[in-house]
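Figure 6 in text form: structure in, sequence out.
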């Protein structure tokens, strides 16, 4: 509810759009955002009713993704199976329905990021691999993609944002 109240002015302008097609697009975008907020709220309520702490729901900041991506990509290239290591850690512990990244478990965070990375398009994976695993500069990425450095920068940002979206988006509680 707080989400909707803080954005009333923004959404009022979007819904007053004079062009019908844009207004319809804005209505769909707002409905999608409201569904996401409602889903997060429902997940949080379910977790609290089940006895889980709700203050440790994982949202990945761009800086965190940038720090962990080299390890994730290396595990994919080297064939390291992070999921099996997590199963060995969990062996003998009760299985819960909580998010795998709850509690700040580094291995679970890496598994989450790996899953999100593998869901990306091949182009996005390549861009993130070049930037975060092979440590290419933006100029070098621009040469590989045959585009300007500023375009390479935007494409790196977009790829990182798509990964962030695959992982739940930005934190709604910021």
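Output sequence:
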């Amino acid at each position: 509810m707080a989400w909707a109240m803080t954005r009333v002015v923004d959404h009022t302008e979007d819904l007053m759009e004079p062009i019908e097609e844009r207004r319809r697009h804005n209505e769909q975008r707002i409905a999608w955002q409201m569904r996401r907020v409602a889903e997060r709220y429902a997940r949080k309520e379910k977790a609290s009713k089940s006895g889980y702490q709700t203050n440790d729901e994982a949202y990945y900041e761009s800086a965190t993704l940038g720090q962990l991506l080299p390890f994730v990509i290396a595990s994919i290239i080297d064939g390291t199976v992070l999921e099996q290591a997590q199963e060995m850690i969990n062996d003998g512990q009760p299985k819960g329905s909580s998010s795998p990244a709850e509690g700040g478990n580094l291995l679970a965070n890496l598994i989450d990021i790996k899953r999100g990375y593998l869901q990306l398009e091949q182009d996005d994976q390549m861009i993130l691999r070049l930037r975060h695993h092979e440590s290419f500069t933006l100029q070098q990425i621009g040469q590989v993609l045959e585009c300007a450095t500023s375009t390479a920068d935007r494409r790196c940002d977009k790829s990182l944002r798509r990964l962030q979206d695959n992982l739940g988006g930005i934190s709604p509680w910021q």
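Caption detail: Residues 1-55 form one domain.
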